[in-house]
Amino acid sequence: MKRVDDFRLQLGSHELVPIMVGGMGVDISTVALALEVARLGGVGHISDAMVPTVSDRRFNTKFVKDKLQQYKLNVANSDKSSVKFDLGILAEATALHVRHAMDAKQGTGLIFVNCMEKLTMNAPKETLRVRMSAAMDAGIDGITLSAGLHLGTFALIENHPRFHDVKLGIIVSSLRALQLFLRKVARTNRLPDYIVIEGPLAGGHLGFGMDWAQYDLATIFVEIRDWLAEQHLTIPLIPAGGIFTGSDAADFLSQGAAGVQVATRFTVTHECGLPDHVKQEYFKASEEDIVVNTISPTGYPMRMLKSSPAIGDGIRPNCEAYGYLLDASGNCQYIDAYNREIAAHPDAKKIRVWDKTCLCTQMRNFDCWTCGQKTYRLKDTTRRTANGDYQLLTAEQVFHDYQFSINNEIALPD
Ligand SMILES: Cc1cc2nc3c(=O)[nH]c(=O)nc-3n(C[C@H](O)[C@H](O)[C@H](O)COP(=O)(O)O)c2cc1C
């Protein structure tokens, strides 16, 4: 029986342990987590979601405060079209975040940044170009394009000096999405260096509709693998979503996957950015506590714990401070939902909004507890302490468990 360590992920000249830890915004996949994964020889991700906020926390910058100050007269206005990101500041925040990771990197692994297209930031193209360019300038090893079809994304950076040297990958959930993407990038004379195939059991936003349960990762993986072979295209494939044990991973590697992308098992490690009390919620969860809903204003279904404080919260939209989901015309679905509830309950001190959430604020405050479907199994990966809490793990333990375990076993911590 094979184990993950019998395989290697070849990305250009890099030979890696075939474990990629997926990006988890906002700062759930921290620099500390990515550094550990790189040290151990795999691929770690940071995320550039809400990077000015992350920079304020880590480096004492005042980007959010300054933006709020600039736009404070607009707070009561439901038209947010004037609330723009300063591209220079966005580049500065990205550079701080990425350099912090790259300067500290040790070992043979790589650090990539997860870049979501759905963070449209009231100027989708310009802000995406700046985010990617600044990350490349700061030395990032690779960029994983996610949460969107990214049909124009390669073109945005094709004149960057690192366009052909940085590793570029895309997350897709269907062969059709991949075909559309490949057709579009053909013009830039550059293929993606890897393709993450994300199935319906993943955490975060899903590339499926509410009928997600009718799909399965293994089927989509085989479909994409066979199609690429027919086209004589050799691009490393990295399945993701619900790969919970080293044996799950080794199964995919035996069928031709180049690596696997995993995330949920790392949410309960010391290095993960979630607060400790939230990590305990993840440990405690049973299958019935996990839901896929449509409260994200991005329009994509999202998986989360039912007990997330974000669900039903009715806070005032915070676009002057954040505004990451404002589309090209300055709209966000949460603003509409919030205004509808305010109009329906003009005298209420506190309103509830159930159909959408202010995702920027909730993710920033770690109050939207997004998670993979297999979160309910996390309790089986650790021990309980005397006070009833679950023992947190180290990223190294989880990484090595994926790398070396067989027979679907999970090694418990000492
Ligand atoms: C807490 C959490 C947050 C996530 N956030 C993002 C994100 O910001 N961008 C993204 O592309 N994927 C995100 N994902 C998806 C993961 O990167 C990964 O592809 C997927 O969860 C792997 O499946 P697994 O969690 O079952 O191992 C997130 C997953 C989790 C668990």
TrEMBL record:
The keyword Nucleotide-binding does not apply. It holds the Pfam family NMO. SUPFAM superfamilies: Inosine monophosphate dehydrogenase (IMPDH). Gene3D superfamilies: Aldolase class I. Keywords: Dioxygenase, Flavoprotein, FMN, Oxidoreductase. InterPro entries: Aldolase_TIM (IPR013785), NMO (IPR004136). One of its GO terms (molecular function) is dioxygenase activity. PANTHER family: 2-NITROPROPANE DIOXYGENASE. This is 2-nitropropane dioxygenase. It comes from Rugosibacter aromaticivorans.
